[in-house]
Design brief:
By secondary structure, this protein is α/β, with parallel strands linked by helices. Helices cover about 30% and strands about 25% of the residues. The chain has one domain: 3-Layer(aba) Sandwich (Rossmann fold). Helix 3 links the parallel strand 5 and strand 6. The protein is built from 4 helices and 8 strands.
Length: about 160
């Protein structure tokens, strides 16, 4: 069973935080799905990832291509069933079954966007009440700090 990690953005925009998480997921050997609610947003993320530093290129593609099953990072509007780690952005919903079937779920939300904040709160409540291991991380201090954990595995 995996875990859901909630990342509360207050200092950095998504385009700065997302590549760091993607890099760590690839280092763990995971295939990653980045899920959003809007096709334009996925196209924007695709462009941002292509324009990243050459020495830290993150291989990726948009879902719906001929080689989706070969992409280390796949940007998608819906679950593909191809990933070990799913990164939800902009309030894309995650179910308890996805948490249970994944190595890791990352839910990144903009703390300055009231709608994203409310969706993240609802997801936290839903997933923790379903028994999913969950952690809440905040960058409000200028660096990432774990602020809360629910349903941690027993030692």
């Amino acid at each position: 069973m995996g875990a859901a990690y909630f990342y509360h953005l207050t200092q950095n925009p998504l385009e700065h935080a997302l590549p760091l998480l993607l890099e760590k997921a690839l280092q763990a050997g995971w295939r990653v799905e980045v899920r959003a609610n809007d096709e334009q947003r996925l196209t924007w993320l695709d462009e941002k990832l292509w324009l990243g530093p050459e020495d830290n290129f993150l291989p990726h593609g948009l879902a719906g291509g001929a080689h989706d099953d070969c992409q280390p990072i796949l940007l998608s509007l819906k679950p593909t069933g191809l990933a070990d780690c799913t990164v939800s952005v902009d309030g894309a919903l995650i179910t308890q079954y996805e948490v249970e079937a994944s190595e890791r779920i990352c839910i990144i939300f903009n703390g300055l966007d009231e709608q994203q904040l409310n969706v993240a709160r609802q997801q936290w409540k839903s997933l923790t009440e379903a028994g999913c291991q969950s952690q809440y991380w905040s960058e409000e201090s200028g660096y990432w700090q774990k602020k809360m954990e629910k349903n941690a595995p027993s030692a």
